[in-house]
Design brief:
Leu-bd; 2 domains; 15 strands; amino-acid transport; 13 helices; Peripla_BP_I; transport; Leu_Ile_Val-bd
C-alpha cells in the first residue's frame, strides 16, 4: 500500500534539510575587479592570487572545521555602475564578503557606500568589503565604514616611505606630478607634494598634470611638457597600461627620468617596459618584491604558487586577504558578518611578510613596506632578472607598518552589540 500524501512531505522536508546543510557548508566570497578592458591583466593577476589562497584554505579543511569557501567572479569593467550591478548579482547568489581593490578608489568607494546601504536595510544579511589595492586614505579616514577593511598600506603610508627615501637622494631636485584623473591619482599627487616637500623643502615642483585613466594611447605630449619643465623626477600613481605606455614613450623619446610610484612593479609588463626603455629608474613601494633577500616564507609561497598556477607570484597582500578573512571567521566561531567584522578588528596575523595587525580604529592593516627600484641585474643588489629580462628589483629601504602608521579622521560607527 502506498501513502503518497504522507511520504511526499516527509521526503520534501528531508531534501530541504539536506539543502540547508549543504548551503551552510559554503561561505561565498564575490571577487569584483576588472577582467576586461585596458586593466584586465591586473584583474587576472589579482584573481589568481585570490583563487590560490581560497583553494589552499579549502584544502586545509576550510573554516570552522569544514565550511568551504567558494569564490564567485564578477567583472567590474573599471566602472562604479558595473561594480554595483555585480554587487547585486553577488547578493542574489548568496555572497557574504566582497574582495575588491583593482578597480580604483572611486569605484571601491561607491561599492562600499552601496554595501553600507544594503547592510542598513537588510539586518542579518550583511556583507563585508575586503579591499586589497585601492589605497585612498579617505576609505579609512572620513569615509571609513565598519564593513570595510583595507589590507594594503594606504597612499599616505606609501608616500611617507618614498619621502623618506627621497630625503636621502640628493640628485632629486625637480619633480613633475603626472597622475591619472581620478580620486587616487589626485591623492598620490597631493601627498607627494605634501610629504616629499616636508622631507625635502629644497625640492622644486615644476609642473602637474592629470590625464584620463586608461584612455591615453601615446604619452609623448605629456613627456614633452615634463622635459620642458626641467624635471629630473616624476611622481606618478599610474598603474597597468598607463604605466607601461608612459615608460615606452619615455624610452622612445630618450628621456632619462626617475619615477616614484606606489605599486607599478607588481603589475605584469612593467619590468619588461623598463628593460625595453633602457632609460630611467622606477622606484615603487609594496609589502615585498620578487628576489627580496631574507624572505623565506614568501619564497616558499611563490614557488608553490608558480608550480600550481604557472604564473609568477607578485602580491602577498592579495593572497593574504582571504586568509585574514578565514582567520577572523575562525576567531569569531561563526560566519555571521557582524561577528566576523568584530573579529577582524585588532586581528594579529603571522603573514608571509611578517606580523601584521588590522587597526581597529579605522580598519587599516599595518604591514611592512619595501621601497625598491627596478634596475639591471648586477649580481649584488639585483641578483635575479624578471619577466625574461636582465632587470630585477633592488631593495632601497624597509619600513614596518608601525613606522608608517599615521593618524586618522575616522569616526567609526559600529552596530549595537
Amino acid at each position: 500500500m502506498k501513502f503518497p500524501s504522507l511520504l511526499a512531505p516527509v521526503a520534501a522536508a528531508a531534501l530541504l534539510a539536506t539543502g540547508a546543510t549543504q548551503a551552510q557548508q559554503t561561505y561565498k566570497i564575490a571577487y569584483i575587479d576588472p577582467l576586461s578592458g585596458p586593466f584586465a591583466n591586473v584583474g587576472e593577476l589579482m584573481l589568481t592570487h585570490t583563487q590560490y589562497a581560497i583553494e589552499d584554505i579549502n584544502a586545509r579543511g576550510g573554516v570552522l572545521g569544514g565550511t568551504k569557501m567558494q569564490l564567485l567572479q564578477f567583472d567590474s569593467k573599471l566602472s562604479a555602475q558595473e561594480s554595483q550591478s555585480a554587487l547585486q548579482a553577488a547578493i542574489d547568489q548568496g555572497a557574504r564578503a566582497i574582495v575588491t581593490g583593482g578597480s580604483g578608489s572611486s569605484v571601491v568607494s561607491a561599492l562600499v557606500q552601496a554595501v553600507n546601504r544594503w547592510n542598513q536595510r537588510n539586518p542579518g544579511r550583511e556583507l563585508l568589503v575586503l579591499n586589497h589595492s585601492s589605497i585612498d586614505p579617505e576609505l579609512t579616514g572620513k569615509a571609513c565604514s565598519f564593513w570595510h577593511f583595507q589590507t594594503d598600506a594606504n597612499t599616505a603610508m606609501k608616500m611617507k616611505a618614498i619621502a623618506n627615501t627621497i630625503k636621502k637622494t640628493p640628485e632629486v631636485k625637480k619633480i613633475y606630478l603626472l597622475n591619472q584623473d581620478y580620486a587616487h591619482g589626485k591623492q598620490w599627487a597631493s601627498y607627494g607634494r605634501q610629504l616629499v616637500g616636508l622631507a625635502r623643502p629644497d625640492i622644486q615642483f615644476v609642473g602637474e598634470t592629470l590625464h584620463p585613466i586608461g584612455k591615453v594611447k601615446d604619452f609623448a605630449p605629456y613627456l614633452a611638457n615634463i622635459k620642458q619643465s626641467g624635471a629630473d623626477s616624476v611622481i606618478t600613481g599610474n598603474w597597468g597600461q598607463d604605466m607601461t605606455l608612459l615608460l615606452k614613450a619615455a624610452g622612445d623619446a630618450g628621456y632619462d627620468l626617475h619615477y616614484y610610484n606606489h605599486s607599478a612593479g607588481s603589475v605584469p609588463g612593467t619590468v619588461l617596459a623598463m628593460s625595453q626603455a633602457r632609460l630611467g629608474q622606477l622606484t615603487w613601494v609594496a609589502e615585498w618584491h620578487p628576489g627580496q633577500a631574507d624572505s623565506p616564507k614568501v619564497d616558499a609561497l611563490a614557488k608553490s604558487y608558480k608550480a600550481k598556477t604557472g604564473k609568477d607570484f607578485l602580491a602577498p597582500r592579495i593572497e593574504m586577504t582571504p586568509r585574514l578573512l578565514a582567520a577572523a571567521i575562525n576567531k569569531a566561531g561563526s560566519t555571521d558578518t557582524t561577528q566576523v567584522a568584530r573579529a577582524l578588528e585588532d586581528l594579529g596575523f603571522d603573514s608571509v611578510v611578517g606580523p601584521v595587525r588590522m587597526r581597529a580604529e579605522d580598519h587599516q592593516l599595518l604591514l611592512p613596506q619595501v621601497v625598491n627600484t627596478i634596475a639591471p641585474v648586477d649580481g649584488k643588489a639585483v641578483k635575479v632578472g624578471w619577466e625574461g629580462t636582465n632587470y630585477g628589483f633592488r631593495t632601497d629601504a624597509i619600513y614596518s607598518g608601525n613606522e608608517l602608521a599615521q593618524g586618522t579622521d575616522c569616526k567609526m560607527v559600529r552596530p549595537q552589540p
